[in-house]
Design a protein that fits this description.
The complex is a heterodimer of chains A (83) and B (283). With 83 residues, chain A is mainly α. Helices cover 54% and strands 0% of the residues of chain A. Chain A is globular and about 35 Å long. With 283 residues, chain B is an alpha/beta fold. Chain B is built from eleven helices and eight strands. In chain B, helix 5 (120-124) links the parallel strand 5 (110-113) and strand 6 (133-137). The chains are: A mainly alpha (83), B alpha/beta (283). The interface between A and B is medium-sized, with 17 and 15 residues.
Chain lengths: 83, 283
């Protein structure tokens, strides 16, 4: 699940920013090619693509800084829904 | 707490309604398009949820939405003390609306025009209450901006200014007074900048990303002019430039043909999912 989520999230970002290279662990905000408004797009994408509603306590930039952190967030939401 | 009517559920009206409701005011949000009202409520909920993530305070979306009533009839404005108008920057539409609002509202209701470029005195003349009409040019996104232009018309009374200033104070907005002239201060400069940036793309001098990169990297601006255009709305930019052109009859305000084509094609920026850039849509 986590790897699939990583792939989907990475595809979403690289479709928007095809010229940028970054690892799954790198802070995309620190790299400077996205701003905080893009965070809103990321939330909307993740909620739509993975059929989840991210709870308020998880809505902070720390969860969206890298592909890996976003995939972890998706995994937590998915396991919470199953469990 | 004030009963405030907000007319027009586009980008600005939605932001104004959210900000007022967040600060405890009762809000009646009116738009002749029911779908726009649904979208406005969805946008307000999302913005409240996202507030902390974007560097703002944590906001209880349900509490904010509970302060807002929506509807398609101007009759809902009957009990409001202040009405803030935010409809499309089009003189014919505004002209018809203010005459209807003049009938639908109490005689002492204050009208605030949140216009980008139309003179306030001209709007006041549409009503039987020019002393109770004034302009406030809110900035986008409204809940995140801490200042606005504060524009009395020729006949605006001191009492009206005090009422509006107090309302702005209550939502944490610094009112910067400027005199009444088309475009005021901000849009007289900003709209021409965006229009000229669009010309650069139109003429092939640089693509949108490059134009914005110059402003970001060379001038240190947080956003370039075409990202700003997408945030404001490409259609709103065009209408504002057209108003400046009509008001001053000066060719320096000629609208860029690319803005016209994008507006006709529905490429209105963030709110439509595509403008100079492409965005993840809300739908």
């Amino acid at each position: 699940m986590s790897n699939d989520a990583r792939t989907e999230i990475r595809t979403f970002i690289t479709t928007k920013f095809p010229d940028v290279t970054f690892s799954d662990e790198e802070d995309i905000f620190a790299l400077g090619f996205v701003n905080s408004l893009f965070a809103m797009e990321l939330v909307m994408f993740i909620e739509k693509a993975f059929g989840t509603r991210i709870p308020n306590e998880e809505l902070h930039l720390g969860n969206f800084r890298s592909v890996a952190l976003m995939a972890d967030l998706v995994a937590r939401q998915t396991s919470a829904a199953v469990g | 707490m004030t009963n405030v009517g907000v007319v027009g559920a586009g980008v600005m009206g939605t932001g104004v309604a959210q900000d007022l409701a967040h600060h405890g005011h009762r809000v009646v949000l009116v738009d002749n398009n029911a779908d726009a009202l649904d979208e406005a409520l969805a946008k307000i909920e999302l913005d409240c949820r996202m507030s902390r993530m974007l560097g703002g305070p944590a906001i209880d979306a349900e509490a904010v939405l509970a302060q807002i009533t929506v509807g398609t009839s101007l009759d809902l404005l009957a009990e409001t003390e202040v009405v803030i108008e935010n409809i499309t920057e089009n003189w014919d539409l505004k002209s018809a609306l203010y005459k209807q609002m003049d009938v639908a509202c109490k005689a002492d209701t204050v009208f605030v025009a949140n216009t980008s470029a139309i003179p306030i005195t001209k709007i006041g003349a549409l009503t039987s209450r020019p002393d109770k009409v004034m302009g406030v040019h809110f900035m986008n996104p409204v809940p995140m901006k801490t200042a606005c232009e504060f524009i009395p018309g020729y006949h605006t009374s001191e009492q009206t200014k005090d009422t509006v200033r107090a309302l702005l104070d209550s939502i944490g907005k610094k009112a910067i007074p400027v005199n009444d002239a088309s475009g005021f201060v901000s849009n007289r400069v900003l709209m021409l900048t965006v229009n000229e940036a669009a010309f650069l793309v139109h003429e092939g001098v640089a693509d949108a990303k490059t134009v914005d990169e110059v402003f970001r990297s060379c001038f240190g601006h947080p956003m370039g002019p075409l990202e700003t255009a997408d945030l404001i709305g490409v259609d709103t930019i065009l209408y504002s430039v057209e108003v400046l052109y009509e008001q001053f009859n000066d060719s320096k305000y000629r609208p860029c043909p690319l803005l016209k084509k994008m507006t006709d094609a529905g490429l209105h920026g963030r709110k439509s999912g595509k403008g100079f850039y492409t965005y993840q849509s809300m739908g």
